[in-house]
Amino acid sequence: MMTVAGVIASVVFCAGVVAVIFHTSTHNRPPHPKEWDPRVLDIVQFDEEHRGLAFKEPVFVDFLDAQAYSDRVRTDETALTDEDKKQLKAAEGELRALGLSNSNVDLFAASNTLVDSGTLAFYDPTTERVIIRGTEMTVDLRVTLVHEFTHVLQDQHFSIGPKRTSQFTTSQESTAFRTLIEGDAVRIENEYIDSLSAEDKAQYEEQHNKEVESATTGLSGVPVALQALQSAPYLLGPPFVELLEAKGGETEVDSAFKKPPSTDEQVFDLRAFFAQNSALTVADPARPDGVSDDEVVDSGDFGSTSWYLVLAERIDPSVALQAVDGWGGDSYVAYDQGGKTCIRLNWQGDTSTDDQEMHDALDQWVAAMPSGAASVRADGDLLAVEACDLGPDVPITLNNRSLDALQLPAARSEFMLQAVDQGGLGVDKAFQFGDCVVHAVTFDQFVAQDAAAFQAAYTDCIAKVGG
């Protein structure tokens, strides 16, 4: 989906928090028009030329007014099953247990806000239609269409819908795949923006800024951490796909669609993708005595993105990033006990040094949480973390810096891309350069985009890494 302020319009929360699925019949193949809507022909041609793929057939484009769009994307609460409601309630407790929310968040309302206020359009691979908020072909709508029609190309050549994603066995496969498809679409979208005339570009920027302001207002009630989880593919995806293109052109990008990244680590640390590092098998955390199967509300794999955002909300994001880089594998289980939601997580690093760095980071995180809310201990070669929701009335200070913190690994990938594309470095040295730069400035300097600090970091890191 094309989004405002980088917030995606799928209601699928990372770390297995919750998924509210829009169910649509897939028994019969959706209808297609015989010809393209003439209003989008130039967009079709642009995407074919810049993505290096030809459309196999036209698709319907639904231009809807604001109210009709809202009606289309929002889910009616009556459509939720009892199990959906149970998972939503548990997810609210999980967010508080992990220190990502300090109130009784209505996740159902928040998810509807994300898919409505946070979006301009989306391609639905189930119905194979593009749905647009807007009825006039403004410049910003044309930019939106370039993005969405890239998704159509992806679907027609590689399949990005339920038929494929239903085969994924971990949540990280889903989030990593979304990072790939959104990174690819943002790349083509940016190429279109660069192709605009000065007049059209100024008009686009003006319209886009208004939309961002409107979306920011609409999303004010959605926890920043949720916004960050949902925007991660749009921040981490573009440098990942552009690095693929820099290494091997569109052929390399196409190959990634055939064999996509399988873990969050592979889009956090791009070396892991090229080395095809797989996740370690980590045993599920043991449930406390007395917790039955019926009281388990969630389980699965957690992933680098979620670990990073949980830590970065409370401790120095640079320390969090260093710790998360050692990720080897994990698992978690969430359960209800005594009327509160708790979560247990097992972490295993690639090396004993990685385990110690994460243990140190988690010690800082536990200390920054409310007293008695969380704990961490070494259990053999695992780190065992436990956190419980103390309830919406227990004050939890939020830094609300998740979106800013997420820019750190995204910037590292951008610096890595520059080192490959402009400096001719190999993947490993390019990563060393990018990692050096983001750790050479403080987080406050990073957020402020301190030019002097960055220049000093560039000079120092070039000298350290070499050519």
User: Helix- and strand-based class?
Assistant: alpha+beta
How many DSSP E strands? 9
Q: What is the residue-mean pLDDT, rounded to a whole number? A: 88
What proportion of the residues form beta strands (DSSP E)? Answer: 5-15%
Can you put this structure into words, describing what you see?
The strands form 2 sheets. A 5-stranded antiparallel β-sheet has the order 5-6-7-9-8. Strands 1-3-4-2 form a 4-stranded mixed β-sheet. The protein has helices at 41-51, 66-73, 82-97, 107-116, 139-158, 162-165, 171-195, 198-218, 224-258, 265-268, 270-274, 304-312, 317-324, 352-368, 402-421, 427-440, 443-448, 451-465, and strands spanning 2-3, 60-64, 119-124, 129-133, 296-300, 327-337, 340-349, 374-379, 382-388. 53% of the residues lie in helices and 12% in strands. The longest helix is centred in the middle third of the chain and has 35 residues, at 224-258. A hairpin with a 4-residue loop joins strand 3 and strand 4 (129-133). The protein is α+β, with helices and mostly antiparallel strands.
Can you give keywords for this protein?
single chain, disordered N terminus, 18 helices, 4-stranded mixed β-sheet, 467 residues, alpha+beta, 5-stranded antiparallel β-sheet, 53% helix
Which SSEs are present, and which pair or pack?
Layout: E1 2-3, H1 41-51, E2 60-64, H2 66-73, H3 82-97, H4 107-116, E3 119-124, E4 129-133, H5 139-158, H6 162-165, H7 171-195, H8 198-218, H9 224-258, H10 265-268, H11 270-274, E5 296-300, H12 304-312, H13 317-324, E6 327-337, E7 340-349, H14 352-368, E8 374-379, E9 382-388, H15 402-421, H16 427-440, H17 443-448, H18 451-465
Parallel strand pairs: 2-4
Antiparallel strand pairs: 1-3, 3-4, 5-6, 6-7, 7-9, 8-9
